[in-house]
C-alpha cells in the first residue's frame, strides 16, 4: 500500500489557510492512485506529529505544500515526523530551489517515508503561475502586450524565500510568453507597492506566490498596490492604477493545477501513479 501526505502550515487566525490543502487532497483522492491520502498541519489538526500513526500503508510520500525550502521544510516537518537520520544535505539542494526527495524511516512507526521537496520550487509551479494569469484574464493565450509580476513575501530571515520567486520569474521570462516578467516582494526590494514603476506595458498581471488567500493576499497587497484604499470595499479586476490595468489574481496555491504539482513530486520520489497522464489530477480523472 502507498499513501500520500500533504503537509501545510495552517493557521489559528485564518480559517481559509488550510482550504487549498484539503481541496488538493480531495482532488488527488478522487483519482484513486493512492490507497490513502492525508492532510497534516503545523497550526491546525490533524498535526504533523500524529499523521503517520493514522496510516496503514508501508510506503508514505510526504509533500510539503510550502513555497520555499527553509525553516519549516528543513527543520520543523522532519522533526515532527521523527525522520531518522534526516539531514538537509539529503535533498542535495545547494541553491535553495533544487530539493528533490530523500527516503528515510520514521523512528516510531514501521514505514518508509519518502520526504519530498516543497511544491513551490517544483518546475511545474511555473506552469501553475501562467495558468493563474490565464484564469484571471480569461484569456488562454495571455502574454503578448502583458507584463507579469510574481509577488512573494520576502524576508531577510530566509534567503530561500526570494529564491523561489526569482527562480520561477526567470523561467517564465525565458519562455518569452510575456513582454515583461518581474519578481516583487512585500518585505524587501523591489516592493510590490511600486508595481507600476517596474512595467512599461499597460496591462500587468499580478500573481502572488502564496499557498492560500489570507491577510497578505486579500488585504495587504491590494492596498499596497493601490487597487483600493480599504480592502473591505473590494476592488475591480482589472483595476486602473497610474495609467496601468492591474489584473490581480489572488494566491497561486488555490489554482486547481496545484494538485498535479503535488502528484509530480510524489511520482519523482517513486510513487506509482500509473494510469494518470498530465493534467489528470486537476481534472479528477483516473484510468480504469
Automatic annotation (TrEMBL):
<keyword id="KW-0170">Cobalt</keyword>
<dbReference type="GO" id="GO:0046872">
    <property type="term" value="F:metal ion binding"/>
</dbReference>
<keyword id="KW-0456">Lyase</keyword>
<dbReference type="InterPro" id="IPR002762">
    <property type="entry name" value="CbiX-like"/>
</dbReference>
<keyword id="KW-0479">Metal-binding</keyword>
<dbReference type="GO" id="GO:0009236">
    <property type="term" value="P:cobalamin biosynthetic process"/>
</dbReference>
<dbReference type="GO" id="GO:0016829">
    <property type="term" value="F:lyase activity"/>
</dbReference>
<dbReference type="Pfam" id="PF01903">
    <property type="entry name" value="CbiX"/>
</dbReference>
<protein>
    <recommendedName>
        <fullName>Cobalamin (Vitamin B12) biosynthesis CbiX protein</fullName>
    </recommendedName>
</protein>
<dbReference type="InterPro" id="IPR050963">
    <property type="entry name" value="Sirohydro_Cobaltochel/CbiX"/>
</dbReference>
<keyword id="KW-0169">Cobalamin biosynthesis</keyword>
